Amino acid sequence: MTTEKLRQLLVVEDDPALQKQIRWSFDQYNVLLAGDRESALSQIRRHTPAVVTMDLGLPPDADSVSEGFKLLEQIMATAPDTKIIVLTGQNEQANALRAIALGAYDFFVKPFDPEILNLTVERAFRFYDLQQENRRLQAMQQPDVLGTLITRDPEMLRICRTIEKVAPTSATVLLLGESGTGKELLARGVHNASPRRDTRFIAINCAAIPENLLESELFGYEKGAFSGAAKTTLGKIEMANKGTLMLDEIGDLPLALQSKLLRFLQERVIERVGGRQEIPIDVRVVCATHQDLKTLIREGRFREDLYYRLAEIVIMIPPLRDRIGDAALLAHALVRRFASEQNRSSLSLSEEAVHAISAYPWPGNVRELENCLKRATIMAEGNSLSVQDVGLDDAFEENAMPLDLRTIRDTAERKAIIAAVSRSNGNLARAADLLGISRPTLYDLMHKFGLKT
Ligand SMILES: Nc1ncnc2c1ncn2[C@@H]1O[C@H](COP(=O)(O)OP(=O)(O)OP(=O)(O)O)[C@@H](O)[C@H]1O
């Protein structure tokens, strides 16, 4: 069967003799037939054919064109990409023009010449394909979270999809993950995939600014608010107006400022330090921390009500060591980037270096890997980066390699399970088959290793 044969063409025609004739003329397509408006619509809903030929005179009032036009409008509303070729009688130019105005692709005067109608149908299919391809290319050009983020890990890819889904909303996103896992990169991803992408993305690290300066850094201050306040200065929240504000290390925000931030999130207005005027602000807030906020709440160091304001969407970013294959993938990409920055495009990683990178636990995550490879590409003498060049010969021996067999076994089992589940696309029965274990055993192991089913 050729692929053309698989293409579906819907023919809407109430005259059985004509139906037969049309079906013969189009034996290269899978012809779907409909004798009235209702059955035509049900075929459209079920098969979404790319091309439809239709007679305007349909029962129950085959002598008028009202049913035909009604159907044309309904198809355009349900499946606007459909290419509809309207068959009209002689001297029905007005109907033909009205059909085109309503969105029909072309019209054809009966009695038709099968060969010419065939050419028109073929052209309609081609036009439909081109339009679809165009749309696909356009979608690829939309900024997406994956634009700068390198990963092949199923959990990270799921996170990217989540971010793409929540980005267009104004929901507050809380990114949790160890240092260097890419929290800021993902926060920028939220911004770039949102309608605010052409406005400002402002990030502030709450842990890096001394407590006494943080308030004016966030909320701004009026001239004369304190000694040294020589002129009115905008805070980061106001600077991010209409854009996105990233509050990094939110777990380090002092309690007094937590109350002030909560008030801002509830009322969406700020008052500059020393000011008395309420300024309305429209920002999308993204927060991040490497700390366990639930523990901070239990210890009375983080306000629970603020947590719930911030945690509208919570995203847990896995550490690099838990991402399948990502360390090697990132390493290759980073070496390519640094090598080209240093005009050393022939530089690449040796096989042993890739092994060592894959096995090392990267406590500093992607940032540590980045630093390590930047240094290696600067320092390396030859064209192939060795284990020594990436500085993992000692580290690997001393730190990375666990010595107790239970840890080694658990790590290997966990990796194999993640690989099998991702290879079987989440189908656990198939994953169990690949692993050579029963499904209940797979469930038990996933539970043991804290993997979500
Ligand atoms: N998946 C990734 N692909 C490419 N680059 C990445 C990826 N993840 C992180 N990076 C890069 O690693 C570095 C650290 O990432 P980022 O600053 O986003 O991490 P972070 O979690 O915000 O760190 P911290 O908590 O220490 O502020 C950045 O240079 C970032 O561009």
From TrEMBL:
<keyword id="KW-0238">DNA-binding</keyword>
<dbReference type="Pfam" id="PF25601">
    <property type="entry name" value="AAA_lid_14"/>
</dbReference>
<keyword id="KW-0547">Nucleotide-binding</keyword>
<keyword id="KW-0804">Transcription</keyword>
<dbReference type="GO" id="GO:0000160">
    <property type="term" value="P:phosphorelay signal transduction system"/>
</dbReference>
<dbReference type="Pfam" id="PF00072">
    <property type="entry name" value="Response_reg"/>
</dbReference>
<dbReference type="InterPro" id="IPR003593">
    <property type="entry name" value="AAA+_ATPase"/>
</dbReference>
<keyword id="KW-0067">ATP-binding</keyword>
<dbReference type="InterPro" id="IPR009057">
    <property type="entry name" value="Homeodomain-like_sf"/>
</dbReference>
<dbReference type="InterPro" id="IPR001789">
    <property type="entry name" value="Sig_transdc_resp-reg_receiver"/>
</dbReference>
<keyword id="KW-0597">Phosphoprotein</keyword>
<dbReference type="GO" id="GO:0005524">
    <property type="term" value="F:ATP binding"/>
</dbReference>
<dbReference type="InterPro" id="IPR025944">
    <property type="entry name" value="Sigma_54_int_dom_CS"/>
</dbReference>
<feature type="domain" description="Response regulatory">
    <location>
        <begin position="8"/>
        <end position="125"/>
    </location>
</feature>
<feature type="domain" description="Sigma-54 factor interaction">
    <location>
        <begin position="149"/>
        <end position="378"/>
    </location>
</feature>
<dbReference type="Pfam" id="PF02954">
    <property type="entry name" value="HTH_8"/>
</dbReference>
<feature type="modified residue" description="4-aspartylphosphate">
    <location>
        <position position="55"/>
    </location>
</feature>
<protein>
    <submittedName>
        <fullName>Fis family transcriptional regulator</fullName>
    </submittedName>
</protein>
<dbReference type="InterPro" id="IPR002197">
    <property type="entry name" value="HTH_Fis"/>
</dbReference>
<dbReference type="InterPro" id="IPR025943">
    <property type="entry name" value="Sigma_54_int_dom_ATP-bd_2"/>
</dbReference>
<dbReference type="InterPro" id="IPR058031">
    <property type="entry name" value="AAA_lid_NorR"/>
</dbReference>
<dbReference type="InterPro" id="IPR025662">
    <property type="entry name" value="Sigma_54_int_dom_ATP-bd_1"/>
</dbReference>
<dbReference type="InterPro" id="IPR002078">
    <property type="entry name" value="Sigma_54_int"/>
</dbReference>
<dbReference type="InterPro" id="IPR014264">
    <property type="entry name" value="PEP-CTERM_resp_reg"/>
</dbReference>
<dbReference type="Pfam" id="PF00158">
    <property type="entry name" value="Sigma54_activat"/>
</dbReference>
<dbReference type="GO" id="GO:0043565">
    <property type="term" value="F:sequence-specific DNA binding"/>
</dbReference>
<dbReference type="GO" id="GO:0006355">
    <property type="term" value="P:regulation of DNA-templated transcription"/>
</dbReference>
<keyword id="KW-0805">Transcription regulation</keyword>
<dbReference type="InterPro" id="IPR011006">
    <property type="entry name" value="CheY-like_superfamily"/>
</dbReference>
<dbReference type="InterPro" id="IPR027417">
    <property type="entry name" value="P-loop_NTPase"/>
</dbReference>
